[in-house]
């Protein structure tokens, strides 16, 4: 395969050049292959990875991509690992990776190997941090140079700019063909440049032909056909650090990744990547390019979920708002695989990890983010949790994001559990809570410290009716009553006040009554809670206790009497 020999260099020259450029490289590719052998996994097991750059910002799209990679590995008894792509030292932020990995861990996306959440590394295929892999990259850079597939480029930034501006009318832009000034330098010229101390990048000597096609099968999009790569892409930058392209080939080969799942901005680079894999003698990996998460805009428009414009683009948003991770995961799956909801209907209790995840069921145009749907999914999930679980999870959240609520919990854990247990664990549990930050408002009337009375009535419940009802009710209320006794007492208020205890009767002949038992209940409900809609009023009353109920009824009465 030495068809692309150029510049008068021959095989011996390439070897000399490789030695000249990489005198310190002693290891051989064969040694590395032996050091990182094919993984011993069962047939069909997939090895996937998430390769974050340490920016410190965990975009919902990163979590989404990480979840895809994680589930693909888990559903095949494979391996999911995390590799840190920190080759861009300028963008590096201290502690950023820990922040990102902690965010992923919240949603159960925990690596089997690679860079672990505490920042340590685990596994036999490391180092998993690119800045620690320079030596490994140089082994393969040397190999390509020896074979004539890489050469040093001494072009300055100005020269590259000149090339760019001369290409205005070219179909293919970049460092290639006749524009690739350093492609054909002789060994002497190279030696001279090096002797002058000129900095150099290592470039691919692409064997590509503009008339050839690169055809590959994307796991999500199916067959993709593009022009073969002809660009002499940079493989090593002037500081010897690899570009994304070169590092991707070397790392995903040596780490034995079977499926590369990544953002679809990389599709354009696949011809280069396939070329690199082939020139390096690597087995090709499979690709699944994930479209960005979209969001509707206006009536019909769509745009990418944006870090700048949308608070929900940051994973911290869901954590701060207190969406349970279970709910976010469940929701993500609904937008990740189009058949997930059907599966869920017939597998209500099943672990999400047992869902047979399928690339083909992913949207090629981008999953659509929908806050209303997330809220709905979350409400459903929370409604099926036991009160103890709601308390445990929301208390954990409150300690970080609502100390006032945490303090209320701490005063009496049994009480808050009982409050959150109202109308739970029955056939139709209420769905008032979609996230932990809803709880303070939801339970506020159960705590004198945060209860803000409001005496606004609705329906037939007028202030006049309220005065009459409350006066009587204060006399007969007894916290020790059973639910039936309690309700009988409320019904007993109706007739003397010109109302009916029978709602049907009222509906048949509304003019004949001042209201019905529902209106009387509203008066009591509003007096006790400041709301017209609450969970079971009897349960609320029982928890508030005799004294507090009487106090609140009295206050309400005083208010309406004014
Ligand atoms: N570090 C790359 C990025 O953040 C990862 C791409 C990949 O997964 O290969 O875009």
Please characterize this protein's 3D structure.
- The structure is a single chain.
- The chain has 562 residues and is α/β, with parallel strands linked by helices.
- It folds into four domains: 11-32 and 133-290, Rossmann fold, CATH 3.40.50.620; 297-383, Orthogonal Bundle (Glutamyl-tRNA Synthetase, domain 2); 386-438, no CATH class; 463-561, Orthogonal Bundle (Arc Repressor Mutant, subunit A).
- It is built from 22 helices and 16 strands.
- The protein has helices spanning 11-21, 29-35, 60-74, 96-106, 134-147, 157-165, 187-195, 244-254, 270-280, 315-321, 325-336, 340-346, 371-383, 387-401, 403-411, 413-421, 439-443, 463-476, 483-494, 503-508, 517-529, 537-561; strands at residues 47-50, 79-82, 113-115, 121-122, 150-153, 201-204, 213-218, 222-227, 234-236, 259-263, 286-290, 294-297, 301-304, 368-369, 499-500, 515-516.
- The strands form six sheets. The chain has a four-stranded mixed beta sheet with strand order 1-2-3-4, covered by helices on one side. The chain has a three-stranded antiparallel beta sheet with strand order 5-6-9. Strands 13-12-14 form a three-stranded mixed beta sheet, covered by helices on one side.
- β2, α4 (96-106) and β3 (113-115) form a beta-alpha-beta unit.
- α1 (11-21) runs antiparallel to α5.
- The mean pLDDT is 95.
- Glutamic acid is lined by residues 51-53, 85, 248, 262-263.
């Amino acid at each position: 395969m030495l068809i692309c020999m150029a510049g008068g260099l021959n095989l011996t020259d390439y070897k000399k050049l490789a030695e000249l450029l990489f005198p310190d490289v002693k290891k051989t590719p064969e040694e590395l292959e032996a050091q990182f052998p094919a993984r011993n996994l069962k047939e069909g097991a997939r090895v996937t990875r998430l390769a974050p750059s340490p920016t410190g910002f965990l975009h919902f799209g990163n979590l989404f991509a990480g979840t895809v990679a994680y589930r693909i590995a888990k559903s095949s008894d494979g391996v999911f690992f995390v590799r840190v792509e920190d080759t861009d030292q300028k963008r590096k932020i201290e502690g950023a990776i820990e922040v990102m990995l902690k965010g992923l861990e919240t949603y159960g996306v925990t690596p089997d190997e690679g860079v672990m959440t505490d920042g340590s590394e685990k596994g036999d295929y490391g180092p998993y941090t690119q800045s620690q892999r320079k030596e490994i990259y140089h082994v393969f850079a040397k190999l390509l140079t020896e074979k004539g597939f890489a050469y040093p480029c001494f072009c300055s930034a100005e020269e590259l700019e000149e090339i760019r501006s001369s290409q205005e009318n070219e179909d293919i832009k970049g460092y290639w063909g006749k524009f690739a000034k350093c492609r054909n330098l002789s060994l002497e010229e190279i030696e001279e440049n090096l002797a002058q101390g000129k900095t150099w990048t290592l470039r691919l000597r692409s064997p590509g032909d503009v008339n050839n096609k690169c055809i590959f099968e994307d796991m999500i999009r199916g067959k993709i056909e593009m022009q073969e790569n002809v660009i002499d892409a940079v493989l090593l930058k002037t500081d010897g650090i690899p570009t994304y392209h070169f590092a991707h080939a070397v790392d995903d080969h040596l780490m034995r990744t079977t499926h590369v799942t990544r953002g679809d901005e990389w599709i354009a680079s696949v011809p280069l990547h396939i070329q690199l894999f082939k020139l390096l003698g690597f087995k090709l990996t499979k690709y699944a390019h994930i479209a960005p998460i979209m969001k509707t805009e206006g009536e019909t428009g769509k745009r990418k979920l944006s870090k700048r414009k949308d608070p929900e683009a940051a994973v911290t948003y869901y954590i701060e708002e207190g969406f349970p991770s279970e709910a976010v995961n469940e929701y993500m799956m609904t937008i990740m695989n189009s058949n997930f909801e059907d599966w869920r209907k017939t597998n209500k209790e099943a672990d999400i990890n047992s869902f047979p995840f399928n690339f083909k069921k992913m949207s090629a145009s981008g999953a659509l983010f929908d806050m209303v749907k997330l809220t709905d999914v979350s409400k459903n999930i929370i409604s099926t949790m036991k009160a103890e679980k709601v308390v445990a999870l929301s208390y954990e959240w409150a300690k970080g994001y609502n100390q006032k609520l945490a303090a209320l919990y701490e005063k009496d854990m049994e009480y808050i559990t009982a409050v959150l247990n109202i109308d739970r664990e029955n056939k139709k549990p209420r769905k008032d809570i979609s996230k932990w930050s809803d709880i303070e408002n939801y339970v506020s009337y159960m705590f004198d410290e945060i209860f803000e009375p409001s005496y606004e009535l609705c329906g037939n419940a007028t202030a006049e009716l309220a005065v009459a009802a409350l006066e009587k009710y204060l006399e007969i209320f007894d916290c020790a009553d059973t639910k039936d006794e309690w309700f009988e007492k409320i019904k007993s208020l109706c007739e003397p006040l010109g109302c009916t205890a029978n709602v049907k009767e009222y509906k048949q002949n509304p003019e004949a009554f001042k209201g019905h038992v529902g209106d009387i209940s509203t008066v009591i409900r509003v007096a006790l809670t400041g709301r017209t809609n609450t969970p079971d009023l009897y349960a609320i009353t029982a928890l508030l206790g005799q004294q507090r109920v009487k106090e609140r009824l009295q206050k309400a009465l005083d208010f309406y009497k004014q």
